[in-house]
């Protein structure tokens, strides 16, 4: 019999890091998860309101805790890991020094809002994707114009998952087209950065990583890592959204909804890069690079679980004016367990605007005299989050017959699950599919 081999998958998210190990030598069609470990990053740095930064050290600490759990579970069998696949949040940017990789900037996350509309309008126009706040290239433009001394300290950059690959393997950073396109100013047809366009705006192009196709080997471990052997290949970091969808192994009439901090609805298009540009998409639908030169049609909302969390935080603050000992968990449980009747109240969840329309704002409409309860408003917010995704996706969802529903928000919030079933009552909704980015990363075929 052949020796059992494992693949280790890593997902470095906004709120947590996760590591899974799968057994590739089983009789099932899909790899089997042997062990899974997840820990909160707790890495947010409090500062200027518009700035959303995280501590790289704290993110790495949560990853280390995951790996300690893996080694503790597998023991000597961790040596059977023959490949590492990494994915993570795509738009964020971290800088580091090539000769001392521990010398890093903070991670500027996808939620960062320092690049306001006026600043974005001053940037060179990309031929392939409208730039937006929180995008890596926009952040680097901002740093070069406002704090050039910061850029002088570093000579490498990438997403947080690109950084982890470089930390493990050494060498210069490598980035997949998933992450490069999410940064902006990247041409999927040629697989190259829009360097000429960037240069017109005095962009520090020398920092940009070399770009490879998803599934490419990013390097090999330079030393043993929690029992995983030196020289184990590590894939170049992929996008967490693409890996989440990959984990569902969907067909052409299927889609995936993922609601965590933000929210997305996606389906795979069989069109190739060179043909997708002929497809007319609305402003709220983006065509992202996927795998095997296919496209991922996606509506990505900035308003997911963070909107419901903001409501819980607000209600907790109000309640503490009268009952100082109440906890966030108390309020959360009261909202999602409230037994409220059907309501005509409607909620537009654009608390954080949308990338395709930054001026959008949240609104609660059609409020009746029976609607002013903590539970009814919570229910309206949950329905609004899901309805907003359906509205953004528009006609792209017309031929979808089945939707796989996943994400941390659905795992914790049964009210959100209930409202999703109502909004998509004409579709077959599946809540028990293992839609998991770390798991999906392990399913990606090596291309080089």
TrEMBL record:
InterPro entries for this protein: ATPase_NBD (IPR043129), Carb_kinase_FGGY (IPR000577), FGGY_N (IPR018484)
Molecular function per GO: sedoheptulokinase activity
Keyword set includes Repeat: no
Pfam families named among the record's database cross-references: FGGY_N
Record-annotated Carbohydrate kinase FGGY N-terminal domain positions: 6-244
GO CC term, one of those recorded: cytosol
SUPFAM superfamilies listed in its UniProt record: Actin-like ATPase domain (SSF53067)
UniProt family annotation: Belongs to the FGGY kinase family.
Protein name: Sedoheptulokinase
């Amino acid at each position: 019999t052949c020796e059992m081999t494992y693949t280790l998958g890593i997902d470095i998210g906004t709120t947590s890091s996760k590591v899974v190990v799968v057994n590739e030598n089983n009789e099932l069609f899909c790899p089997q998860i042997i062990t899974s470990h997840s820990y909160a990053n707790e890495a947010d740095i409090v500062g200027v309101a518009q700035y959303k930064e995280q501590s790289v050290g704290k993110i790495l600490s949560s990853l280390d805790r995951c790996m300690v759990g893996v080694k503790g579970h597998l023991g000597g069998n961790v040596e059977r890991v023959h490949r590492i696949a990494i994915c993570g949040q795509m738009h964020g940017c971290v800088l580091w020094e090539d000769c001392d990789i521990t010398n890093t900037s903070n991670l500027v996350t996808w939620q960062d809002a320092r690049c306001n509309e006026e600043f974005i309008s001053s940037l060179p126009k990309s031929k392939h994707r409208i730039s937006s706040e929180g995008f890596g290239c926009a952040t680097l433009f901002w740093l070069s114009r406002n704090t050039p001394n910061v850029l002088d300290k570093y000579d490498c950059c990438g997403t947080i998952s690109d950084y982890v690959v470089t930390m493990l393997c050494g060498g210069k950073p490598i980035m997949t087209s998933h992450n490069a396109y999410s940064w902006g100013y990247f041409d999927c047809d040629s697989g190259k950065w829009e360097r000429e366009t960037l240069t017109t705006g005095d962009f520090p192009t020398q920092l940009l990583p070399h770009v490879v196709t998803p599934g490419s080997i990013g390097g090999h471990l330079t030393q043993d890592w929690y029992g995983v052997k030196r020289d184990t290949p590590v894939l170049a970091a992929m996008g967490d959204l693409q890996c989440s969808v990959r984990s569902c192994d969907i067909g052409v009439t299927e889609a995936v909804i993922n609601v965590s901090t933000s929210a997305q609805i996606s389906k795979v298009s069989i069109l190739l890069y060179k043909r997708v540009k002929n497809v007319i998409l609305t402003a709220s639908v983006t065509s992202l690079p996927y795998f095997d030169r296919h496209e991922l049609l996606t509506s990505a909302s900035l308003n997911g679980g963070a909107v419901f969390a903001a409501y819980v935080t607000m209600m907790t603050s109000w309640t503490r004016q009268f009952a100082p000992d109440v906890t966030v968990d108390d309020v959360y449980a009261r909202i999602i367990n409230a037994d409220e009747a059907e309501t005509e109240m409607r909620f537009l969840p654009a608390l954080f605007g949308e990338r395709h329309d930054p001026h959008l704002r949240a609104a609660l409409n059609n409020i009746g005299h029976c609607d002013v309860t903590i539970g009814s408003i919570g229910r309206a917010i949950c329905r609004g989050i899901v309805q907003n995704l359906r509205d953004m996706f528009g006609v792209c969802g017309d031929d979808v017959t089945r939707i796989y529903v996943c994400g941390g928000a659905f795992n914790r919030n049964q009210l959100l699950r209930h409202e999703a079933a109502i909004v998509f009552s004409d579709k077959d909704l599946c809540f028990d599919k293992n839609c998991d980015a770390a798991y999906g990363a392990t399913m990606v075929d090596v291309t080089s």
